Amino acid sequence: MANTFLTPSVIARAALANLYETTVMAALVHRDYENEFQQGRGATINIRRPATFVAEEFDRSQGIHIQNAEETGIPMTLNHFADVSFAVTSEDLTLNITDFSEQLLNPAMEAIAQKIDRDLLALRNDIVQEVGVVGSTVTGLPGTNEWAWDNPRVAIDAQRVLNQRNLPTSQRRIAVGPDTQSKWLGDDLFNRADARGDTEGLREANLGRRVFGFDPYMTQNITIPEQTTGNSTTEVGVAFHETAFALAFRPLALPRGAQNAAIANYRGFGLRVVYDYDTNLKQDVVSIDCLYGTKTLDPNRAVLIKGADVA
Question: Which keywords are on file for this protein (predicted)?
Fold first, then answer.
């Protein structure tokens, strides 16, 4: 990106491409609600949970049994306003900044991508189903957990829980942290695998093969000790169906007082870039922001992977 051609539109397109390529969790959750956020409708809407039906044996003498297509609605709020703003002095722009994207834009987008990851992972607080402790059980469901959190076969227990919840077998994912990844990759399950994923972020995050019905990914935003998911002694991973969690973006309006501003949208991601010049300090100020919401749609569609809690 040549410095002499920097414009808000150029920066917005480059930033959006970088954000799309580096997000992990954002690509794994439900993303079908962007059109619900229309200007003037407010920051909170009701989103639809998929309807559920029961397949029945057809009896010609009785005819068909018409079931009600009941969809329940739950509120979703655009509750996150991510911003990265930075200044570039005239001297730096002239003498030191040789690649604007590499030196400034990429780190800025990485920060936003990490924030989106953390905000989605915070939804683990809504999940009460747990596997990862041998001999433990999930309240209300039959069966005993057979595998520990540091064994990739713990996905068998997670699979059992989601199967007992009658969830589709497609679009199931697992997200774990670096410590769990290091233990899992030492298992024979991962020794002969090719990388998967649709973007650079997903290719780098993917652990290499489908594991007992799940596509597994690693995110550095799952850490030890966990600050938001109780008193676990281990990382707290999560196995889930895509429809357990939702993410929705709403592009922010262009500010009326800024002449150099642009919006970029791609596959449900929206970014706003405002490029201004501070005459007093003789520096360019670049502000990149986005407005989005995160929501747990159904806690029964996810299960935590973790070790025992501290007593």
Answer: Capsid protein, Virion
